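Project standup — Tuesday

K.O.: blocked on the structure for the chain from last sprint. Re-posting the sequence here as requested.
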Amino acid sequence: MNYYEKEPVQRVQQQDHAVKIDNRKNMEITGVKEVDSFDNEEFLLETVMGYLIVRGHNLQLKNLDVGDGNVIIKGKIYELSYVDEHSQEKAKGFFSKLFK
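H.V.: unblocked you, prediction finished:
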C-alpha cells in the first residue's frame, strides 16, 4: 500500500470547556489539559480555551481526571480569569496611551 491509498487520519474533536460554580464554594471545570500549579490561594490550569487562573481562599483540589479533562475545586472562590497574550497587549497599549 502506498501513501495515497492510506485511509485518512481520524482527528480527535476538541473537547468542550465548561465552568460550573455552586455558591462560590464548589467549582467543576471540564476541558482541562493540565494543572500547572496550585496552592490554597491560586490554581493555574491549562484548558482547551487557554490558561485559567482561579483565586480564592482555602482552595483544595478535590478531583483531578486529566484523562477526561475534569477538575473539581472546593473552597471560597474570589476570582476567575483567563490569560490571553493578545488581549493583555491590547489592554497594555490602551492604558499606556490613556496615562501618558
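K.O.: great, moving the ticket to review. The chain has one domain: 15-98. Residues 9-13 have pLDDT under 50 and may be disordered.
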